Amino acid sequence: MSVLRLMAEGHGNAGIAQLLDCSEHTVKNVVYEVMARLGARNRAHAVARAVRHGLI
């Protein structure tokens, strides 16, 4: 959920990785999984669906 919240704040993968002290590759994997689970076409769509469903 941290990655999703940071996506909603407008952070990119590199920024999220730095804030969470992990690799950018890890963030990319998490973003991909979040988008797949939410059935989202892109990052903005994932954030919109997360807000709509009360996840963030």
Automatic annotation (TrEMBL):
It comes from the Bacteria. Keywords: DNA-binding, Transcription, Transcription regulation. InterPro entries: Sig_transdc_resp-reg_C-effctor, Tscrpt_reg_LuxR_C, WH-like_DNA-bd_sf. Residues 1-54 form the HTH luxR-type domain. One of its GO terms (biological process) is regulation of DNA-templated transcription. GO terms for molecular function: DNA binding. Gene3D superfamilies: Winged helix-like DNA-binding domain superfamily/Winged helix DNA-binding domain (1.10.10.10). Pfam families: GerE (PF00196). SMART domains: HTH_LUXR. PANTHER family: DNA-BINDING TRANSCRIPTIONAL ACTIVATOR DEVR_DOSR. This is LuxR family transcriptional regulator. The lineage of its organism: Bacteria, Bacillati, Actinomycetota, Actinomycetes, Kitasatosporales.
